[in-house]
């Protein structure tokens, strides 16, 4: 540790070159922190999926609806405890830049299959009794400053009202739900299916998908197969998945985020490897006289090798900490768009490991040359 100030001073002999190298590494790890952080946040959401819930969709596509009459048939299948249904409403609030996740549901069913949602009993009863009632997540309510009793105008990008031919829908906020285990799930809104089904101009008597709560999660495969078998060869065949598989397939409709992030980061660090490597090699080449003097004063070959590696490690780790730190500060800004509020600790650990590997890859060759340095030849040059 006592040699760190010395190595730091040697590293900054050429301030402009070191500054540019430092900036390139900071930007690379800033990109790493943001992309890998978002990817990890998505994966955390998937991993938190309830193990005793199945999602039943139309076999053709998620955008194809299913008959509401299928509900009673699904309930009758052995192993099924409760069944609810949801549909994608696709609205925005005031401006298309403010899209919302909103779902028409049957209140007594929807919150029974999602026991992690905490709703005061009186608010749940208010939703059942209020035709235009809606319950919103706490995070969503805090974002827009909504409270119980507010009138909420939404514009749907899909559903048109039969009464006036417009896509403008009004709701009354009667409750606010919370999910302490996963705040990202508080970014949704639930309202009465009966009001939705009576008011819409098309698709009456259909739902988007079913949410099935199992009596025993170990029977998920058997129950899923039984549901799909029940509707095989019918006009509306089904595809039943676990909640985790459903969320994974939903994200893949956007794209394989994990694969995209991996390719981008591979390209960035591949280019960075050459940039940092050339900087370290040039710096060591210029330090040959100093290294020769250090050997003359009694520094062993191994110690010189370690000191050169330490320069590369200082540069990479210091820049990585700066880049990931900036990414961590920027992460709360993604709350409004992705529901991501903090960088997963796993990403910080991965970033530091990447910095150490980068330092080893770029510093090993010049360190090995410094170790084999011959004092007489070095001083002569």
Automatic annotation (TrEMBL):
<protein>
    <submittedName>
        <fullName>ABC transporter permease</fullName>
    </submittedName>
</protein>
<dbReference type="Pfam" id="PF02687">
    <property type="entry name" value="FtsX"/>
</dbReference>
<keyword id="KW-1133">Transmembrane helix</keyword>
<feature type="transmembrane region" description="Helical">
    <location>
        <begin position="304"/>
        <end position="327"/>
    </location>
</feature>
<keyword id="KW-1003">Cell membrane</keyword>
<dbReference type="Pfam" id="PF12704">
    <property type="entry name" value="MacB_PCD"/>
</dbReference>
<feature type="transmembrane region" description="Helical">
    <location>
        <begin position="260"/>
        <end position="284"/>
    </location>
</feature>
<feature type="domain" description="MacB-like periplasmic core">
    <location>
        <begin position="23"/>
        <end position="229"/>
    </location>
</feature>
<dbReference type="InterPro" id="IPR003838">
    <property type="entry name" value="ABC3_permease_C"/>
</dbReference>
<keyword id="KW-0472">Membrane</keyword>
<dbReference type="InterPro" id="IPR025857">
    <property type="entry name" value="MacB_PCD"/>
</dbReference>
<feature type="domain" description="ABC3 transporter permease C-terminal">
    <location>
        <begin position="265"/>
        <end position="373"/>
    </location>
</feature>
<keyword id="KW-0812">Transmembrane</keyword>
<feature type="transmembrane region" description="Helical">
    <location>
        <begin position="347"/>
        <end position="368"/>
    </location>
</feature>
<dbReference type="GO" id="GO:0005886">
    <property type="term" value="C:plasma membrane"/>
</dbReference>
<dbReference type="InterPro" id="IPR051125">
    <property type="entry name" value="ABC-4/HrtB_transporter"/>
</dbReference>
């Amino acid at each position: 540790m006592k040699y760190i100030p010395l190595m730091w001073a040697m590293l900054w002999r050429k301030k402009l070159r070191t500054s540019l190298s430092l900036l390139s590494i900071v930007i690379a790890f800033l990109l790493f922190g943001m992309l890998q952080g978002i990817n990890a946040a998505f994966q955390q959401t998937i991993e938190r999926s309830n193990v005793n819930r199945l999602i039943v969709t139309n076999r053709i596509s998620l955008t194809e609806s299913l008959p509401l009459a299928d509900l009673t048939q699904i309930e009758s299948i052995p192993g099924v405890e409760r069944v609810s249904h949801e549909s994608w409403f696709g609205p925005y609030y005031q401006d298309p830049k403010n899209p919302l996740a909103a779902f028409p549901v049957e209140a007594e069913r929807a919150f029974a299959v999602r026991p992690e949602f905490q709703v005061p009993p009186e608010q749940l009863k208010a939703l059942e009794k209020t035709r235009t009632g809606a319950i919103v997540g706490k995070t969503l309510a805090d974002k827009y400053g909504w409270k119980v009793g507010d009138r909420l105008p939404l514009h749907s990008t899909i559903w048109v009202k039969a009464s006036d031919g417009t896509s403008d829908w009004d709701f009354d906020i009667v409750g606010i739900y919370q999910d302490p285990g996963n705040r990202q799930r508080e970014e949704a809104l639930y309202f009465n299916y009966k009001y939705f089904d009576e008011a819409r101009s098309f698709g009456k008597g259909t739902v988007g998908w079913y949410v099935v709560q199992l009596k025993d999660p170990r029977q998920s495969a058997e129950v899923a197969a039984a549901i799909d078998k029940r509707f095989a060869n019918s006009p509306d065949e089904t595809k039943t998945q676990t909640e985790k598989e459903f969320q994974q397939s939903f994200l893949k409709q956007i794209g394989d985020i994990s694969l995209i992030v991996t390719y981008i980061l591979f390209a960035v660090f591949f280019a960075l490897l050459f940039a940092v490597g050339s900087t370290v090699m040039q710096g060591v080449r210029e330090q040959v006289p100093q290294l020769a003097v250090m050997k003359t004063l009694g520094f062993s070959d191994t110690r010189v090798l370690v000191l050169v590696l330490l320069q590369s490690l200082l540069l990479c780790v210091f820049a990585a900490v700066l880049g990931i730190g900036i990414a961590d500060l920027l992460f709360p800004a993604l709350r409004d768009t992705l529901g991501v509020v903090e960088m997963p600790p796993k990403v910080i650990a991965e970033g530091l490991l990447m910095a150490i590997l980068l330092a080893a890859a770029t510093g090993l060759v010049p360190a090995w040359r410094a170790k084999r340095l011959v004092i007489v030849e070095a001083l002569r040059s």
